[in-house]
Fold:
Amino acid sequence: MNKSNDITREEMWAKQCLSATDIDYAVWERDKSILHQLSKICHNCTFVVDVYKCNYTYASSNFVDLLGYDSHKIETLEKQGDYLESRIHPDDRAQLAALQVTLSQFIYSLPLEQRNDYSNIYSFRILNAKQQYIRVTSRHQVLKQDHNGKAWLVIGNMDISPDQKHSETVDCTVLNLKNGEFFSPSSLIMPSSLNLTNREIEILRLIQKGLLKRLQTSYVSVFTLSIFTGRTCYAN
Structure:
């Protein structure tokens, strides 16, 4: 992205305007215990992003067993920055970042009461415990809102994809949780209406053309753009 568009996480959270008085962490502690039990049954890799604290706040132990993550870092995830992204293929990280910019523009165009109604489903490459790249599917959606209806906790569920196709492209489908309709982000890539910067438009076009190597110099943290998505999509 253009350097002028860089923004720190702290600046983004300031614009998000979440307040501790509108958040109930007792509810999250209860739900975290439930997630922990479910992960033992389902064997998927579950993670949660805390929008208020600006960090990953939870990841299930299946990240260690299935994908080879460090157990100590998973247990202390809140202190580990973007560690959960470290095993994603570098080309795919760049694509994920650009896709989230596009989707944030779409969500922000909706009425406030509809902005939590969508789930983004991605398919991309990640290192497994054998140090081999495999494809996974990762479904992201709002888990908890604050008292004003703003996104507070975002949950992701990652599974090994049954389709281990050889592809250098990140697949993404958006699901409307209210009516069950699906659509592809590619239908949203219309620069004249999305108000993207020239650099963002260039990145999206490179993704469509499969020119992945040129994207490596455009890497932006997927989590940072998740924060950007929350700030633009859920702030009043």
